[in-house]
Amino acid sequence: MLKLVLRRILESIPLLLAISLVTFFLLFHSPGDYLASLRADPKISDAFLKSEVIRLGLDQPWYIVWLKWLWGVVRYGNLGHSFTYKIPVTELIGARLFNTFLLAFCSTIFAWSIAVPLGIIAAVKQNKLPDRIASGIAFIGLSIPSVLLALFAVYFAAVTGTFPTGGMKSDTHFMMTDTWSRFKDIAHHLVLPTIVLGMGGLAIYTRQMRSNLLETLQADYVRTAMAKGLSHRTAVMRHALRNALNPMITLFGFAFSDLLSGAFLVENVMAWPGLGRTTIEAYTSKDLFTVAAAVMLASVMLIIGNLTADILLGLNDPRIRHD
Amino acid sequence: MTDAPRTPSEKLTQELAAAVTADAAAAAPMGLSPSALAWRRLRKNRAAMFGALVLLALYLVTALGSFIAPVSPAAGDYDHPNHPPTLPRFVDEKGKFHARPFVYGMRMNDPVRQNYQYDVNQKYPLRFLVRGEPYKLWWIIPTDLHLFGVEKPGIVALFGTDSVGKDVFSRVIEGGKISLSIGLVGISISLLAGMFMGSLAGYFGGWTDRLIMRLVEFLLSIPTLYLIIALRAYFQTQTVLGIGGRNMSSTQMYLIIVVILAFVGWAGQARVVRGMVLAIKEFDFITAERALGASTFRIITRHILPNTLSYVVISATIAVPGYILGEVALSYLGVGIQEPQVSWGIMLEDAQSLSTITNQPWLLFAPAALIFITVFAFNFLGDGLRDAIDPHQQRK
Amino acid sequence: MRSVIDDAPPMWRVIRSNGLGIIHEDERQHPMTINANGLRAITLRTTTLAALALLCIGCAPKELRDQAAAGGEATTATATSTTSAIASLSGVVNVTLADQITSASIEHPTYTPPEGFKLPFPDALAARDITPGKRGGNLTYVAFGDGPKTFDPITANDSASNEVIARMFMGLVEFNNQTQTYQPGIAKTWRMEEDQRNWILELREGLQWSDGKPITADDVVFGARVIFDPKVANAGKDVLQVNGKPFIVEKVDDYTVRVKLDAPSGSFQALIGGLVALPQHAYEDELEAGTYEQALNINVDPAKIIVSGPFKLKLYESGQRVVLERNPYYHKYDQAGTQLPYLDTLVITYAPDMDQMLSRFQSGQADAFIRPRPDSLSNLAAGAAAGDYTVYNCGPGDGSNVFWFNLKMGLSPKSNKPYVDPTRHAWFSDARFRQAAMHALDKESVIRTEMRGLAVSTWGLESPASRFWYNSNITKYPFDRAKAGELLDAMDLKDRNNDGIREDAAGNPVSFTFITNKGNKVREKVASLMAADWKAVGIDARPQFIDFQALVTQTSDSFEYEACLLGFGGGGVHPANSMNVYLSSGRTHFFNPSQEAPATDWEKEIDELARSFNATLDINAQREKFNRMQAIMADQCAFLPLWTSSVFVAARNSIGNLKPSAITHEVLWNSDELFFK
Fold first, then answer.
1. To probe the interface with A, which of B3, B221, B346 has the most A CB atoms within 10 Å?
2. ipTM metric
3. Cross-chain Cβ contact C294/A45 below 8 Å
4. Which of A322, B340, B386, C487 is close enough to A4 for a disulfide, judged by CB 3.0 to 4.6 Å?
5. What's the pTM?
6. SS3 of B201, please?
7. CATH fold for domain C32-99+397-644
8. A166 and C233: CB-CB below 8 Å?
């Protein structure tokens, strides 16, 4: 197992290199640069623009900029400075990353805690009403574009006033003195984004849980157990369920990393101060190193997620060889 | 290198692929081809058949688009902005019944709120097969015949109009051309690429395999949306294979969107196909064929690829909604199809605001309902197909 | 979101943002563009806004009346003009300002402490014309975007940063949005010396930084030193200059500063706000060490940000909100002797789109916001009574939407091809073609539908908001397809093959593409409507939607485009701010920028007028010259101006001393005077 982890980490190095290379290439070859906004400012002189180009290193070919950035990363662990904020990008992104992480984590918990029971009901009552209802919910969840769902959530919040329409904290949060009310405040803000973001996954995992359980229910050992007089309920709970859950656990890693990178549509509609919004804004203003850092971080998350999944898969199913 | 699935849906398709390969052998003794068997099961699945019928109807209406749409989707009507949906009436203000349905003349009485009042003295009877704005059916047949319409300045806005008076019903039909085709074209491209690369990797193994799989890993490790946005911007100024650049036509724009979506999608397909090919490769009949001296090309095209076909059909059905929703996400981010072209994603993006929900709900619900229905139907059909081809799920 | 360059420089920093900036109005809800406004400088606006509401209102009704006349007899519908429509929206209040301010009152202010004020020391600031309020309370203002990028008044280059910085740093002079005049700030008087070149600024004695240290001439000189430091990237150094020679700022004594100019400048008052007083004791070390740009970044400990304005930073949560608290050393007092600001805290909270702003305001989480979109205005107004708030119509803003053809001649050094295809260039260069294009546009209908009648059609670059400088007597090009057709016929552009599109004698179809920035839904729609209007007169125009950054690169760097549709941010109403658009050598003379010598006679005439404008010190003579410049521009139809949107402000009724205005900052400009009743 250790060997696997080590090898996967080694393997991911060229992968990350390639991703950063492509990121720099695309950023340099898409139209406009960071200084475009200064160019449209009538009072900025050409001389100043030229000095800025040199100061920011934008006069060099993209691969040189990439190499210099890479050297900074390898030598000093420095992901570069944000052009816009003039601070190291790690400082800029850190807080945002945590917010996105929090949202993705809650959504995952939400999706799984609903999907697993729903999948079980659907499988046990296969082709009966509960199954149809569960499948219906799953299909509806799959069929609504997430931006639309987010809009409905904002509308719901605006009309009923039961939840905040957006954001992560109240504007009076800073006045709250005790930890408990601060915690409650954030939890209150988390509810709607969590549901909206979790909805897509919820549908998929319900279907997955259902088919896993159906499969194990047909397995010989379950049938044998039932033939021996074990009640259906016990057979499901004690034998089938445990085995049906195993493959689900392996999905956890992927699901989580998927959410991390996929959260930004919801972040945008629901004003969640996450990584996605910063990245898009940085991209729009061509804040080179911020975009590069955000893409790298998201990629690392994906890779870690995949790795976790592989490890879980290996632990669960010794038949899978990692060679 | 493991074959661990990367996403839940990929895991589903992997299992499915295994089932399909197994099915090839299982079906033979019954004297029925696997596809005939599957068709039989599919017909019994009411939900799936319903989905299929809905899709058929949607595609049919879209194909006849310009004929069914009463006005051009691009034609603004400054006298009727944000006009609510009106159904033709049979009964007039005096309670009199009219065999031929009609609409009242409408007048806006408040430009800020954009309220309308109808004028009972102006009735416009609904006419069928009327001459209207000229258009070219299927880009070839020039005609000006429309299924229905009313005389100007009357309007028959089945789904209402938008902020500059464009008819939403006509726009939904026009938008369907893009939204409904984007999935089919996209999945065709990504499947072709995925099958090609996947079978190469699976059949040859060794370096080819490693190289292709590294590429696949690479694509799967980049956060999809960032990649799409970056690629889209890249094509804005750079020309690749004659596509893109400053003077991009709307067709090229459409192609770029599809190609980008497909480019992001093929990697997953390639992984699954590779796995299937690895399994099929070990079948006795392939070994026999190889022993008889058949060429690699022949083995791949004649034996291996056909055996993955049923997987392909299902996988396509399951993946199409992803393209439709992908187009919606792109439009939301402002990097999809653009005005004056219209798609459901653009219409949805356009209506994405609380004041629209409150004041002009038709602008949001028309495209939203169609996206929902289409994706729902594809999911039902895909689910049915999966059940039909994978008989294990049906047994109890 | 409004644009990209800087916009709204705080009122005390006039200069920074000269010229027409670029702004996209009405697009505050799209996630893909960043928030930065077009440059909006403060200027000498010598007018009242009283007539503006009328102007705004006058535009829509004609078609409606026509429609009513045509539909004539026995209709159940009643056509109402926008006037009564806005009036009928209970809750919308038209902002009118009573006094006409003469230009003379801003020329040479002198400082006398008003009578009846209980000032703790003679030079303390007196808050004039306000209702004395009570201290306390927390005001939440919801703003668009992702929040400030820096807290540095020198390097800030975007509206979100400036919005916050203007609350934290007091200017040498302060701009009063209500009276549209400059008022003494840190400087109590400023006057020209007899050589008509140098200016003397007298500072108040007894003012203190938020750490208790005195504010002196050294801090003003230090501010200038930072601006002109080669290591500090900022736009100010390019503005604080005459004829390419930078201003020299020297200390005369502890409370007197001399600003030396190379030549007399008729626009000095428009530039004076560009000088910033910065605490020398706090940041000199950073400047010496070359790390000044880091000194006021968003992650700095709030205690290290030493300010002179009403509020100091308490907390910044990236992407969420800025919390400002009262600066205990702020020396402004009301008649009753109460120290300002009244508010304990001011929260500026950030929302990514209009929906979020609207719902936070309506749910009571926020107390004020600005510029609701036209489509949400009726809902907003309808809820006014229940929500105990008012929507203020401040009249047209100072930005506008403009179209132009690329008239740049010569070969592009990159592709070695002409910037614009020579055939098309010949059409574009013909004033008749541009006039025909203008006549072909049905602006009123677009305003009536898409803008809900809440915008004003404009015929020149200056906004009607500026009554002193705005020339209403210029050539107008009303919607007239026949007239457009005649002009095109006269150029021998006729539909020779009956395909609906005109061709020239050689058979080239009259077609062009025009670029505009994507992400602005309104503008995207308008672009396709314009294309349809042009098609109706036989011109095949195709819109292209590209990223804002890419657009700027094309219009200001590569010049490889045919025509462009864009929003100009109000450069403020003082002509000094838009001179670079009129001057043929200006980089923002968009249709043919950075010319070495004027390409046409009329551009030459404008150049000469601009030069004599700057050398003139009499404001009325200046106005005549500027009127002539506007008239020439309109005659030639060099820019095709479209419209200017009305500015609305929504705020709770419980806020006292609220004085909403159409120019930046619409609500917070007098944040030190706001209080809760």
1. B221
2. 0.84
3. no
4. A322
5. 0.82
6. helix
7. Dipeptide-binding Protein; domain 3 (3.10.105)
8. no
